[in-house]
Amino acid sequence: PDGPPPTAIVCDDDKLAAGVYKALRRRGLRVPDDVSVTGVDDIALAAALDPELTTVRLDAELFGERGMHALLAVLEGRTPEEGQIPVELVVRGSTAPPRA
Question: For 62, phi and psi rounded to 5 degrees?
């Protein structure tokens, strides 16, 4: 596509972020010098990438459990319970302020 690249790409999981790294490198762009990249999950791959991936750590088991309870509630005609799932931003080397 034409035009300037984005300054950041937010991915919904760490595996997708790894693919973004590869695509950016093919275009001659550097993480995070040209484009910041983030993921979600904090799987082992996040720390193995170069630079290490900034990501959001969440409890996948709790996330799945809450999702299943919500689905069952909807199927039974009930309103799913509300609640928060704790998350933690794990800042690593894949993010930086955009260049001026």
Answer: -65, -40
pTM of the model: 0.81
Strand arrangement, sheet containing 36-41: 8-10, 36-41, 54-58, 87-90
- Four-CA torsion 13, 14, 20, 24, nearest 10 degrees: 140
Q: Can the peptide bond before residue 5 be classed as cis, meaning omega within 30 degrees of 0?
A: no
**Tens digit of each residue's pLDDT (9 = 90 or more) over 31-41:** 999 999 999 99
Fold observed for domain 8-57: Rossmann fold (3.40.50)
3-class DSSP assignment, residue 68? helix
Taking the domains of the chain in order of start, what are their residue ranges? 8-57
